[in-house]
Structure formats: C-alpha cells, structure tokens
UniProtKB/TrEMBL annotation:
Domain of life assignment: Eukaryota
Protein name: Golgi SNAP receptor complex member 1
Matching Pfam families: V-SNARE_C
Residue intervals passing through the bilayer: 229-247
GO cellular component: cis-Golgi network; Golgi medial cisterna; Golgi membrane; SNARE complex
Record's keyword terms, sorted: Golgi apparatus, Membrane, Protein transport, Transmembrane, Transmembrane helix, Transport
Length: 248
C-alpha cells in the first residue's frame, strides 16, 4: 500500500536534487555576470575618460541579467513546490523511524533552498545597486559633457563675468577695510584732540598765572600744530594710496 508513496517520494527527491544542481550552476553564472558587469563598466570608465560613450545602453549584459533572474526565480519556485510535496508525504508517513529520516532529508532540502534564495537575492541586489550607480554616474557625465560642449563664446563670457564679479567683491572688501581704518583714525584723532584741548586749557590757566612760561606755551602750541599737520598729511596720503590700490 505504501509502494506508490515511497516511489513518489523518491521521484521528488530526485527532482529536488536536479533542481538544486541546476540552481547551483545558474547562481554561479549569475554571480560571474554581476562581477563581469562591474568590471566592464569600470574598464569603460577608464578607456572613455572623455565621457562621450554612455555607460548603459540596453547592453546584452542587462538583458542577460533579466533572463537569468527570471529563470532562477522559476527554478526556486519549482524547488519550493517540490519541498512542499515532500512535506506532505513526510507528514503522511506512518512509520516513526521513516518519518524521522524523511524529516531530516526534508530539512536538508529546505536549508539548501533557503541558502540558494538568499544568495540569489543578495547577488541580484548587488547587481541592481551597481547598475543604478552607473546610471547615476552616466547621467552626471552627460551633464558635464553637455556643459563642456556648449558655446565657447558663452563659456568665455561667463568666466569673464565671474572674474569681474570677484574683482568687484575684492574691491568692495578693500574699500570697507579702508573706511574702517579711516573711522578708527578719526576717532583716535578726536580723542587726542580732546586730550590736547584739555592740556591746552590747563596750560593757558598756568600761563595766565605764570606769564614767564607764556613763550614756552606758544612754542609748544606751534610744535603741536606742526605735528597735527604732519599726522594729517600722512593719513591723507595713506588713504589716497589705499583707494588707488583698491580701484587699480
């Protein structure tokens, strides 16, 4: 009564091993395809540094990838179905020792199926990531090439505008620095003038009290005026030189 089920289980195990062998070969080829795809794209980037050749253009590798992915998915589906049928026969086995042996065999086939499924999804994800990266790089290269192949006159004009803009910014910065120096100098001179006025007031008071030092006070005032004129001339010359340098 159990001959037919035993025969069916043997057939299922045979089919499972055949599918596993076929999947193993397919996955090896699939992994090599992914590796060669990445290497081919890297080599093409090195050879065509001018970015005139698109990286992806419906290549045979892309079509081969899609075909092999479909085939592997179909094989995985078939192997899953075989494992499910083996599980049904295992659950229907009446002999405990036979049932334990079948459970062990079924678990081994399930582990193999799980490993193949994981390997397939990992390889497929790596392939898609490489292709997406290459598509992105290809798009960037096309944009750069488009910019490079634009009108030379327009590019030259743009460069001149950028240089002129940078020159104006530098001039504005120099002018601001010059104005800041002038303002600081003015504040310093104002402070010094206040101090000198205070000293002069005190000296005038002393001169009024002591006429003998009046001539000394006059000489000091003359030297102070001379020093002020010299200082003002130096500051004016420095300011003019800075402005001439800024607008040169």
């Amino acid at each position: 009564a159990h001959a037919a089920p035993l025969c069916s289980r043997a057939d299922l195990r045979k089919q499972a091993r055949q599918l596993e062998n076929e999947l193993d070969l397919k996955l090896v080829s699939f992994s090599k395809l992914c590796t060669s795809y990445s290497g081919a794209r890297d080599g093409r980037r090195d050879r065509y540094s001018s970015d005139t050749t698109p990286l992806l253009n419906g290549s045979s590798q892309d079509r081969m990838f899609e075909t092999m992915a479909v085939e592997i998915e179909q094989l995985l589906g078939k192997l899953t179905g075989i494992n499910d049928k083996m599980a049904e026969y295992t659950n229907s086995a009446g002999v405990p020792s036979l049932n334990a042996a079948l459970m062990h065999t079924l678990q081994r086939h399930r582990d193999i199926l799980q490993d193949y499924t994981h390997e397939f999804h990992k390889t497929k994800a790596n392939f898609l990531a490489i292709r997406e990266r290459e598509n992105l790089l290809g798009s960037v290269r096309k944009d750069i090439e488009s910019y490079k192949s634009g009108s030379g006159v327009n590019n030259r004009r743009t460069e001149l505008f950028l240089k002129e803009h940078e020159h104006l910014r530098n001039s504005d910065r120099l002018i601001e620095e010059t104005i800041s120096i002038a303002m600081a100098t003015k504040e310093n001179m104002t402070s010094q003038r206040g101090m000198l006025k205070s000293i002069q007031s005190k000296m005038n008071t002393l001169a009024n009290r002591f006429p003998a030092v009046n001539s000394l006070i006059q000489r000091i005032n003359l030297r102070k005026r001379r020093d002020s004129l010299i200082l003002g001339g130096v500051i004016g010359i420095c300011t003019i030189l800075l402005l001439l340098y800024a607008f040169h």
